[in-house]
Amino acid sequence: AVVARTGGWSHIVNAIPKLAGKMALPTIIGLGVAKWLGGATVTPDLMRFGKDAKAVIITTLAEFLVGNFGFNLLGLILGLGIGVADLGKAFSMIGVSILALVAFIVQGINVEMNELYAASLSFSNTFTIKRYITNLAVGIAGIAIGYYGITHGIIGSFLTFIGYIAYALPPLSGIIIADYYLVQKMHYPGGLEGLPSVNWRAIVTFIITVGLNIYLGYYLKDVLLYSTPLLSFLIYLLISIPQMIKNWRQPSYTKS
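Given the sequence above, the corresponding structure tokens read:
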């Protein structure tokens, strides 16, 4: 419908984004990578409920191919073709409003539920709080933030949210990569069950990195470093030197 309305693919391909120049390219790339890494870190937690390995593989492929590639491509076509960032309004303009409801159910509800679930579980495990309490607290916070975003303009709130995500999401991937590949040497001798319930070095690294990112991005107007996993990667390695030395002195393991 968009292609027919705009007169062909050439218009979409050659269109100028509505907010062109408002965000630096390195920041866009950093946010894109962080988004995928963020999804990848949540996926194993959700997939532990899979019936078997086949279900896990099929679900993960569907999640990334349909949920990420499919809906991102749809958003690109609508945004470039019609010049409207609001998907609901864009669907209405091309006369297929029913797709807005489908997109909301398929892409919106499950994503938000997953985020609320992950947040509730993390708070419960970290601070040893009962799940129904964290469920209630996270649910109320989510509703309040959503209401605030709608009443203050969806697009403006979304751009602000993306800006905040840039400070907090990339450090997670940097910590995970540093811990698995270098500190743990890609091997957990005691298995996942042998790990502490909370990695406080990771928590400290995250807090320090977010503080540095806010300073770099907000005060120094940095457009690259604050949106990458590099700082958290280096900080985590620095405070994990004793653990890394201990693990690297252990004999190498080979997979059977």
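The radius of gyration is 21 Å. Try to locate this feature in the token string yourself.
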